[in-house]
Specification:
Length: 661
């Protein structure tokens, strides 16, 4: 088996060096950002030192030295009672900065938590939280704070708590929007499929993507809280005298502005510079993060919103047939429409035994992917699912449980776009370890198992891949990582949704060989969703052909290729090119009808050259024509499609390999 390389050792060293140059490094390369950070750190450190060590005796009065200008003894002069202004300024900075930070911490904590819930859960939770956010936005901040001060007195901590509550509205809106965007990414679906809990998904895959905007907003909010705190102090609602704070010092200076104007400068300049530094730091942080994103590949070229299907998942119940892995009966998937629910999959029934490989084939829009998503509880909302599904002996009729307990361990999914199914914020090793720890491994055993899984799927230089980010891998290598993640929980059933679509032909053959080898080695059942008959012929033992949301033919792979009974199956074969065979390709006229336009009779009749009035007389049932061979066609006994296949270059006389297409 040939394998892909991730680059030379020199390339790997360059990649690691580039990774170390992150947002923090870009921020520290900006002189303005360094100046802002230095000022903020200087104020914080000096305030802590002056408050802790009581330097400068800020409360000591000396009326003989009142209203002195700056001097060597008193660098910023003295106030009306002869107290040292610098000592009071730094001593009071502790109270001012700490209370402002307290308010912002409340705003960020509450806003982030509610924003995550609203953006991820949606529905009633989103409506209630959005209503709460709207109320907070409409409340006048100053009036509310004055009312609190009137009731509770000069309790600055109560006032800052209320301020944090009011400021949380901005963070709710910000985090909610970020969460709604991130939850549509395929790597969030991959985390669900891997069996991770909702809390784990939110903390590891959703929250990190919202932290950047939150940090930027938090820097500006800290400046706002500092101004509000100083304003309350100016109004006499801060800490009671003689404890100094910046707002109180401005109030004292204002009362003596005609006697000693200089007294207004120290506290005023301190507030202005500190707020300006906080706001500028937020701007620099935004620029650094934007530069980071603009230089990285776009990992979200197509987004797909997924949520739980509206149906309960199987409960582990013992059945008589222990060899039965999957049993689907009358599965239907529908979405709301103007005139009621619109079905996109209807009446699908099939079964799979352990170790079996079944191919689900059909044109785009036939319901293949939606059927696969229904089996793992990931039908996009507001879709609903009806019918019965049994997976590994469990039945949806026995208990209304979530699919969460099954994902990753009993059933797993490989998507068709590996580059967006892997979270770009984490290395491959981090993603692998996270999933494995969710399956019961500790950190050391998870890392060892991650190496084994990557080696199992044919990845060279495992250690380099473990430290690489998804965008640093080729498409084939990323798909191998996605397969390793899917089999990490040793699932009984693996659903592969067009796993080779985004890859070139040579890599497709390698991935198919890998899937075949893993299926045989691990004994998994494999449901392969594809539109490529060459892939079906290469790997599957049984084929299910879907058209317009229905199964139109089901048969063992040899029987289907040798003796198709459905004109649609024959049309798919004659439109599939074969290497080394003289063949006149004939495409299927027309397109798959939209679900809202499905007819009550044979849905392929409008495109079928064999259709007659009897085909349009009413619904066509799926009936057996041979042992293990069923077809949805009233003329299946009248038609002989084999000569048509022979004229096109019979598939039965051609090696059925994925590369022979």
């Amino acid at each position: 088996m040939s394998v892909e390389q991730t680059g030379t050792p020199e390339d790997s060293r360059v990649v690691r060096q580039r990774r170390r140059s992150g947002t923090a490094a870009r921020l520290l390369r900006r002189p303005g950002a360094v100046a802002c950070l230095a000022w903020i750190l200087l104020v914080v450190v000096l305030s802590v030192v002056y408050r802790t060590l009581d330097i400068g005796e800020p409360l000591q009065q000396d009326l003989a030295r009142s209203y002195q200008n700056p001097s060597a003894e008193h660098w910023l002069g003295t106030d009306m009672l002869g107290r040292d202004v610098l000592a009071r300024l730094l001593y009071g900075g502790w109270e001012t900065l700490l209370s402002a930070g307290f308010a912002v911490a409340i705003a960020i904590g509450l806003g982030t938590a509610l924003g995550l819930v609203a953006g991820y859960a949606g529905g009633a939770a989103d409506a209630v939280i959005s209503w709460f956010q709207d109320i907070l936005i409409t409340l006048p901040t100053i009036l509310v704070l004055l009312a609190v001060a009137t009731v509770l007195g000069n309790n600055i901590w109560a006032a800052m708590t209320v301020l944090g509550l009011l400021m949380s509205a901005a963070f709710i809106r910000l985090v909610r929007a970020s969460t709604q965007a991130v939850r549509e990414e395929l790597y969030v679906d991959a985390a669900k499929v891997a069996g991770l809990s909702t809390g784990r998904i939110l903390s590891r895959h959703v929250l990190p993507n919202a932290l950047g905007p939150v940090m930027i907003q938090g820097s500006a909010a800290l400046g706002t809280a500092l101004v509000v705190q100083a304003g309350l102090g100016f109004l006499g609602l801060g800490a009671p005298p003689p404890v100094p704070h910046w707002g109180g010092m401005i109030s004292e200076a204002a009362s003596a502005i005609n006697v000693h104007p200089w007294l207004l400068a120290p506290a005023g300049v301190m507030i202005v510079i500190t707020v300006l530094a906080l706001n500028l730091l937020g701007d620099y942080l935004r620029d650094a993060m934007y530069a980071s994103r603009s230089t990285s590949p776009d990992a979200s070229q197509s987004r797909r919103r997924s949520a739980r299907a509206g149906m309960a998942a199987p409960q582990a119940v013992t059945t008589d047939d222990q060899d039965l892995l999957l049993d689907v009966q009358d599965l239907s998937v529908s979405f709301p429409g103007e005139d009621g629910p619109v079905p996109v999959v209807g009446g699908v029934s099939f079964s799979m035994r352990r170790g079996e490989v079944i191919g689900l084939v059909g044109e785009s829009g036939c319901g293949k992917t939606m059927t696969g998503l229904a089996l793992i509880g990931l039908v996009p909302e507001p879709g609903s699912v009806d019918g019965r599904i049994r997976i590994a002996g469990g039945s949806t009729e026995s208990a209304p449980r979530s699919f969460r307990d099954l994902r990753g361990r009993t059933v797993a999914l490989i998507s068709q776009e590996p580059m967006v199914a892997l979270d770009p914020a984490f290395t491959v090793g981090s993603l692998m370890i996270e999933v494995l720890r969710g399956h019961g491994h500790d950190r050391s055993s998870a890392r060892a198992r991650a190496r084994e899984l990557l080696a199992l799927v044919g990845i060279p230089r495992v250690e380099d891949v473990l430290t690489s980010y998804p965008h640093q891998l080729s498409g084939g290598m990323a798909q191998r990582v996605a397969i390793a993640l899917a089999i990490s929980g040793e699932p009984d059933l693996l659903i592969a949704d067009e796993p080779t679509t985004a890859l070139d032909v040579t890599v497709q053959a390698e991935i198919l060989d890998l899937l075949r080898d893993l299926q045989q080695r691990l004994g998994m059942g494999l449901l392969l969703i594809t539109h490529d008959l060459g892939v079906i012929a290469d790997i599957c033992s049984r084929v299910i052909v879907m058209y317009a949301g229905q199964i139109v033919e089901e048969a063992p792979v040899d029987d289907l290729f040798d003796n198709p009974q459905m004109p649609y199956t024959q049309a798919l074969m004659t439109s599939t090119p074969l290497l080394g065979v003289e063949q006149e390709l004939s495409g299927i006229p027309g397109t798959v009808p939209l679900p809202s336009a499905w007819p009550q009779h044979c849905r392929f009749a409008a495109r079928c050259s064999f259709a007659t009035d009897v085909c349009r007389a009413g619904p066509i049932p799926l009936e057996p024509v041979h042992p293990a061979h069923s077809v949805r066609c009233v003329r299946s006994q009248d038609l002989d499609l084999s000569p048509v296949m022979a004229s096109a270059g019979a598939v039965t006389d051609t090696p059925r390999r994925a590369g022979d297409r």
